[in-house]
Amino acid sequence: MKSIFLLVLMMSSSLIQAQQDGVWLTDYNEAQKIAKEKKLPLFMYFTGSDWCKPCIKLKEDYFETSEFLNKTNDFVLLMVDRPYRLDIISEVQMKKNKALIKKYNKENTFPLMLLLDHKGKVLKDISGYSGDPRYYRAFINENS
After folding, report:
1. Do 112 and 45 contact (CB within 8 A), yes or no?
2. Per-residue DSSP letter, 63
3. Looking at residues 121-129, what average pLDDT do you find?
4. Alpha-carbon gap, residue 58 to 103, rounded angstroms
5. Smallest Cα–Cα separation from 40: which of 28, 27, 31?
6. Residue 32 buriedness (CB in 10 A; 0-12 / 13-18 / 19+)
7. 81 vs 59: CA distance, rounded Å
8. In degrees, to the nearest 5, what angle opens at C-alpha 73 toward C-alphas 142 and 123?
9. pLDDT at 143 > cutoff 90
C-alpha cells in the first residue's frame, strides 16, 4: 500500500514539475486538478498541430519564446490537439480531445485559447492568429 501511495505521489510531483517547466499538459483532469491545487487559472489551447497554419505560426512566433515560457508558472497549460494524422496522438487522447472540443470549442475555431477557473468555467477567450502575437501577449499579460 505504501508503494502505491509513493508511486502516485511521484507521478503527481512529476506532472507539477512538468507544468512548471512550461510544458503543455494533455490530460484535462490532471490539468484541472493542478489548477485547483495551485489556485491557478487553466489555459486551454485548441490546435490542429499538423494542418492549422495559424496554429503552427503562433507556436513558432509566441509559444516557443522565452517571453511566453517566463509566464507559464502563472497558469496551468492544457493543449487540446486535433491533428489529421493519426500517428500524432493516441486514439484514446483523440477521443478525449474531441469531447473537449465538443464542450468548449463548439465552433471548431483554431487556434483558440480559453482561460478557465478550476471548476471548468470559461472566463475569457481569444481566437485566430494573423501573424502578430501582440494580442496573445496582451491576453497572457493581463491574466498573469
Report:
1. yes
2. I
3. 95
4. 23
5. 31
6. buried
7. 13
8. 45
9. no
Helices 2-20, 28-38: axis angle to 10 degrees equals: 80
Distance CA 119, CA 98 (A): 20
Q: Is 35 helix (H, G, I), strand (E, B) or coil?
A: helix
Alpha-carbon span 141 to 1, nearest angstrom: 44
CB 36 within 8 A of CB 29: no
Q: 503527481: which residue's cell? A: 12
Neighbour-count burial for 47-70, b at 16+ CB within 10 Å, e otherwise: bbbeebebbbebbebbbeeeebee
Dist. CA 6–CA 130, nearest whole Å: 47
User: Which run of H or E residues covers position 29?
Assistant: helix 28-38
Distance of CA 80 to the CA centre of its chain: 6
Kindly state the cell numbers that stand for 91. Answer: 486514439
Residue with cell 509513493: 6
Q: pLDDT tens digits, residue range 24-62?
A: 999 999 999 999 999 999 999 999 999 999 999 999 999
